[in-house]
Design brief:
- The complex is a heterodimer of chains A (302) and B (252).
- Chain A has 302 residues and is mainly alpha-helical.
- Chain A is globular and about 60 Å long.
- Chain A has one domain.
- Chain A is built from 13 helices and two strands, in the order H-H-H-H-E-E-H-H-H-H-H-H-H-H-H.
- Chain B has two domains: 158 residues, Rossmann fold (3-Layer(aba) Sandwich); 73 residues, no CATH class.
- Helices cover 40% and strands 23% of the residues of chain B.
- In chain B, helix 3 runs parallel beside helix 8.
- The longest helix of chain B is centred in the C-terminal third of the chain and has 16 residues.
- Chain B is globular.
- Classes of the chains: A mainly alpha (302), B alpha/beta (252).
- Chains A and B meet through helix 6, helix 7 and helix 8 of A and helix 2, helix 3 and helix 5 of B.
């Protein structure tokens, strides 16, 4: 049972991470900085609960806001470049954050034990959940409460004019500008929202693993963050959720029995999925089909 | 209403637009014609802020918009269409209009939340009149990328109108259209003039230009070689020469 609770937590946290990349990707940008924002959220909220005695909710919120502010600051220069150049620029920022925490010591003594982040050793004993008697099940519920809140907020955003504008920028920047869209504002806003969401996810991650270190937030995590929305498709937030379940649930966990062959098959399956569904697992066609199933009408003409 | 003063754009050594002066008056349909490569589209892109201006000045309603970015030009009241259609193909037809429905009229009155996060049901209804005008009411929910060529041209025109501009820059709106569609476009442009819109029409299709414009300017090699009413332009020897070649050689 604990295995499945743990898996549900991982899927939840990675969904939040994937959604943070999803928002940015709607505007046609590919950001490898999401792991960096995730790390900021993790360290900041961990320090707030461990060192300052915060409750987890305000700690996560502060971590998220700080990550959002960083994303906003990074967004202005980074979004002046496009495509591969942006990938490199955001990757550099992500590594910058990781190396910052690799070198970052801030420990205080609490009950005779030194606590707080300690460079390469990592940040141990983020024990808000056990100290307050939360069971794995409680934590799982909490994680999914946040996941659902983030998904609901993004779902609502998607269906408002803001969602249409983000997609318009993603499709054709010149046409969007000519339709009155200020590209800088829209892209930086998306980046900021993505940073905030990633920060929230990092806050949860720090607390359920209880131990974080810089290696948790490297390029692999950044790659996963963008792989989810790419694989899931940008039709709506459920694509990202579906992709996380597919990757974390089916590929990472389900193929564990294959040992070292897993990674090979893992890559092959993703390539296959992208070939079969170039616009993601949940593309416009499958959405139209689903709509048709539920409303009994034929939306699948497209 | 729109004034260009000795406007120039050089791409390296190429003088795409070279000291162009124009004035488009309020409420008129002004035609801009010229052979291929004469700088018509470049002029449109300069006015809309797509390319930086090399020299000269652009004024709209007395305001200097020489160095304004495209979205600022739209906010000032100039909307455009593109020579090669640029729609948001994966958005639905009505959403294409929704995206553009922000800048002008509603900007000051409606709050931030209403402009960005208002729900979709009412917004969809509000695009109804424009879709009717473009003859796309039945296709409101289709993806823009799935429309036929003519429908896409109409949607692009509707998107330009969705921002409630004072002036429209239409870059070859009749390209690729058959005669029936050109006739419909002509009626639409007439209706827009009735509506008080000022239009700068860049076009190759002479039936449309000669039939609908009030005044015409002719460009050749980035310079204005003639300006006048359609009748004057049709009888201008310089214009004939630009289109048909030097008169000394071509009579046989």
């Amino acid at each position: 049972m604990d295995f499945y609770l743990g898996l549900a937590q991982i899927i939840g946290v990675h969904t939040i991470l994937g959604l943070s990349a999803y928002v940015v990707m709607l505007t046609g940008q590919l950001s490898l900085a999401q792991a960096g924002f995730f790390a900021i959220g993790a360290y900041v909220s961990g320090m707030l609960t461990v060192l300052a005695g915060f409750h987890i909710l305000p700690a996560m919120l502060v971590g998220g806001l700080l990550a959002g502010v960083m994303a906003c600051i990074v967004g202005f220069p980074a979004l002046r470049v496009k495509g591969l150049m942006l990938v490199i620029a955001t990757l550099a920022f992500g590594e910058f954050v990781r190396l910052f925490f690799f070198n970052f010591d801030y420990q205080i003594s609490k009950g005779g034990i030194a606590v707080g982040p300690l460079g390469g050793e990592g940040f141990r004993q983020i024990r808000f959940f056990p100290e307050n008697g939360w069971t794995s099940f409680d934590v799982m519920l909490f994680v999914w409460g946040v996941v659902i809140a983030v998904m609901a907020a993004l779902w609502w955003m998607d269906r408002s004019r803001a969602g249409a504008v983000l997609r318009a920028v993603g499709e054709d920047e010149l046409a969007a500008q000519s339709a009155g869209i200020n590209l800088t504002v829209v892209k930086v806003a998306a980046m900021t929202a993505g940073g905030f969401i990633a920060g929230l996810g990092g806050g949860i991650y720090a607390h359920y693993t209880t131990h974080i270190e810089h290696l948790n937030f490297g390029v692999i995590l950044a790659t996963f963050a963008i792989a989810y929305p790419i694989l899931g498709g940008l039709s709506n937030v459920f694509g990202t959720l579906l992709a996380v379940i597919f990757i974390q649930g089916v590929l990472v966990e389900g193929l564990r029995f294959m040992g070292d062959w897993r990674n090979l098959l893992f890559g092959a399956l993703i390539v296959l999925a992208m070939n079969v569904r170039p616009r993601g697992l949940l593309d416009e066609r499958s959405m139209a089909l689903l709509k048709g199933l539920f409303t009994g009408r034929d939306h699948a003409r497209t | 209403m729109l004034e260009l003063k000795s406007l120039s754009k050089h791409f390296g050594g190429v003088r795409a637009v070279d000291g162009l002066g124009l004035e488009v008056r309020e409420g008129e349909i002004f035609g801009l014609i010229g052979p291929n490569g004469s700088g018509k589209s470049t002029t449109v892109n300069l006015i809309c802020g797509v390319f930086p201006v090399t020299a000269g000045e652009i004024r709209f309603e007395g305001r200097d918009i020489t160095h304004a970015q495209p979205h600022v030009c739209l906010a000032a009241g100039i909307a455009r269409t593109f020579q090669n259609i640029r729609l948001f193909g994966h958005l639905s037809v009505w959403q294409n209009l929704w995206v553009a429905q922000n800048a002008l009229a509603d900007r000051k009155s409606a709050g931030f939340v209403k402009r960005w996060f208002s729900g979709s049901a009412r917004a969809r209804d509000e695009t109804g009149a424009l879709l009717e005008f473009a003859g796309l009411a039945a296709k409101a929910d289709d993806l823009a990328g799935n429309l036929s060529f003519g429908e896409q041209r109409r949607l692009e025109l509707a998107r330009a109108l969705a921002a409630k501009p004072k002036m429209l820059l239409l870059d070859e709106p009749a390209a690729g259209m058959n005669m029936e569609e050109v006739g419909q476009l002509r009626e639409r442009l007439g209706a827009l003039r009735e509506d008080g819109k000022t239009i700068l029409l860049v076009e190759h299709v002479m039936e449309l230009v000669m039939g609908v414009t009030d005044r015409i300017a002719v460009l050749n090699f980035g310079q204005k070689i003639a300006e006048g009413t359609p009748d004057e332009i049709q009888n201008d020897p310089l214009v004939r020469e630009a289109y048909l070649g030097t008169s000394g050689q071509g009579d046989a």
